[in-house]
Amino acid sequence: MNRECDKIRDLIADSVTGTLSPDQARQLDEHLSGCSDCRNYADALRYEDVLLTQLVAGIDADMRNRQQRLLETLDRCQSEQHETIAKWTIIMKSRITKLAAAAAIILIAAVSLFFFGKLLAPSYAIAQTIEALKDIRFLHVIMHDDSGKIVDERWIEVGPDGFQQRYRQDSNLMGESVLIVDDRKTCFVYDRIENTVAIYDPNEKQYQWISNLREFFQDMAGDSTLTIEENVDYHGQKAHHVRWLKLNQNCYIDTQTKLPMAVGPYEVDYGQPPAETFEFTIPDHVKVYDTIAGQWPESHQDEEIADQKFDEARKLLAKGEYAQAANLFESVIQLQPGLNWAWFWLGQAQYKSGQYDKAIDAFTKVIDMLASIKMVPHYCYLARGLAYRAKGMEEKAKADFAIALPIMLVSLSYIDGAMMFDYADNPLYQYLPDDQRPTKEQSFARMTERLVEVTGQNFIYNPGMTLKETGRLIREWHNWWQQNIRQYQSGLVPLASSTAVTWAEARAEALEIIATRSEWPDSPQAVARAFWEVRAAQNYKEMEILWPGSGSWNWAEICKSDSPVKYVFGEPRKDNTEVPYASQEYFDKNGSYNLTMRLSSIETPKGRRYYVVSGN
Q: What is the CATH number of domain 3-76?
């Protein structure tokens, strides 16, 4: 990101609030057409803004029924998630299969969102699309690159039951060039680069885009969709712009036919295919492997070895044996360089080992790979941002966080949105039985922990919270983002120096000091008062101790516009976790407190000691 991008991100924020002039709008459009980083940022910000607006409106309008709907949703959400993913299953054993399925696999892996309380305004009636699809017999699915060239084209025959029948795919993705033809008798895979044709039994190896299109859209119906805007222009045609929340994908529905015109990065039409679409003639001078007769491609053994090493590397990473895990992931990548999760977990192993430059390179590889199929791995932007921060490169870190944070914040309301972050955190996630995977509550709590690590705020979820308290917690995070968004546009508040510690390290150091000091403020009220006294005295080192974790911030920059203010403090509340306060002037005028300091505490040999975790 350069200086021009810094300015553009101000315009993006203004575009969300509708305050751009026509000239600024044209400048923004011109820049976004050529800058993928700013496009990703704009998409994330606009998406978060739409969801937040409807979320707040829905909460205000429908609070009475919220608790019952929440309980009903929680009862069924766990099973729904896995049923949806099952419909996108692709049989994947060989390198070629993984390539051909890449786009659909990434859709499976995209952020899955499902709102707790079903409070969104009614979206476009997907039932009309489901009905329209009943008469569809063929799909023509195309993805273009940024230059307009077709890089993935598929023809799909749909049976009367809605399931895929014959299939053809011609892909040029991620350095590969493959033609696949499945006539339901034989599946041919022609690798143009290797100049080989592999013949498979279609009952043993099947390539798919969506197994059952009608069921897929039924899954997307109701509360799993959000209408962003109706009657928009899409390539010269009127369309409804709909967000499929479970897959975090933009889709466009033809207003006349009610059929999807685009699903994620793919454009869709429904014409009759050319007569020879599902026929395949083996080219001359190619090496043929008939796997039905036991003849396997030369790469088959390498693929099996890579799969074994990949599984072992994941186990080592989960055990914390980072150096060994990194070595194995590197071996896997030598055999299967297009395996994005091998690159991602290699980066995680390197990050945990303190090899931040290598980790950044690995995470960048994942981001670039998925960008080639127009996917945005928000979990990877989070991971790379943390690696940049560990190196003291706060401006780059915040540029990455600016893409990840809106999705992370939205996932507090649409809990399944945390799924891919959970998957990225745990390399053994896919092996866990359903009853050992994170519950909705655990995913929610873990997401708040990630947000705390990134932002330094401490709006933490506690298992004992009521629904009202949880709703307030979500609002606190969204309010914080609205107030601090510009920090993440251009890194306005960098770390104090390139050798600055991370938030977690600064927090640990401060808590150690709090636990061992001979003297400490003796009440929550005294801690809150002490913080504002040392801030007025510009004693930034003491502020870093009173507010553990804030040692990773540049307090001098944050406080440079402070003016002298005298504060008064009320009695602690909520089990000593909040101290209300106000300026003396405000209190004298209104007789009440309009601000809150939030605190936590630790048990020490000298008794319980309180410290600041957030304030306004």
A: 1.10.10
How many Cα atoms are found within 13 Å in the side-chain-facing hemisphere of 246?
A: 21
Compute how many other C-beta atoms are within 10 angstroms of the C-beta atom of residue 88: 19
CA atoms within 13 A on the CB side of 283: 13
Helix (H, G, I), strand (E, B) or coil at 447: helix
pLDDT digits (tens, 9 = 90+) for 141-173: 999 887 788 999 999 998 887 788 999 999 998
Sign, CA torsion 540/543/549/554: negative
The CATH fold assigned to 503-615 is Nuclear Transport Factor 2; Chain: A, (3.10.450)
Residue 189 has pLDDT above 90, yes or no: yes
CA distance 361 to 448: 27
**Type of residue found at 259:** L
- pLDDT tens per residue, range 229-279: 788 888 888 998 887 655 567 789 999 998 989 988 899 999 999 999 999
Give the integer Cα–Cα distance in Å for 146 and 296.
Answer: 36
Identify the CA nearest to 341 among candidates 326, 329, 359, 352.
329
Domain covering 299-375 in this structure, CATH number: 1.25.40.10
- Separation CA 366–CA 348 (nearest Å): 12
595-604: strand order across its sheet: 567-569, 578-583, 595-604, 607-615
CB burial string 419-449: b at 16+ within 10 A, e below: bbbbbbebbebeeeeeeebbebeebbbbbbe
CATH code, 90-293: 2.50.20
Structural tokens at position 419: 């799924």
Across 496-585, where does the E strand assignment appear? 567-569, 578-583
The encoded tokens of residue 332 equal 């896997």
Beta carbons of 260 and 220 less than 8 angstroms apart? no
Q: Inform me whether the pLDDT recorded for 385 exceeds 90.
A: yes
Nearest C-alpha neighbor of 162 from the set 129, 199, 124 = 129
**Comparing C-alpha atoms, which of 310, 103, 88 is closest to residue 217?**
88
Distance CA 342, CA 427 (A): 10
SS (H, E, C) 312-342: HHHHHHHHCCHHHHHHHHHHHHHHCCCCHHH
Q: What ranges do the domains of the chain cover?
A: 3-76, 90-293, 299-375, 503-615
| Per-residue model confidence as pLDDT tens digits over 533-547 | 999 998 988 998 998
User: Which residue in the block uniquely carries the two structure tokens 């502020």?
Assistant: 543
pLDDT, tens only, 63-92:
334 334 433 433 333 333 333 333 232 333
Give residue 509's identity as a one-letter amino acid code: E
Report the alpha-carbon distance of residue 74 to residue 84 in Å, rounded: 16
Contacts of 478 (CB under 8 A, 6+ apart): 52, 55, 409
**Quick one: which H or E segment has residue 187?**
strand 187-191
Cβ contact 77:440 at 8 Å: yes
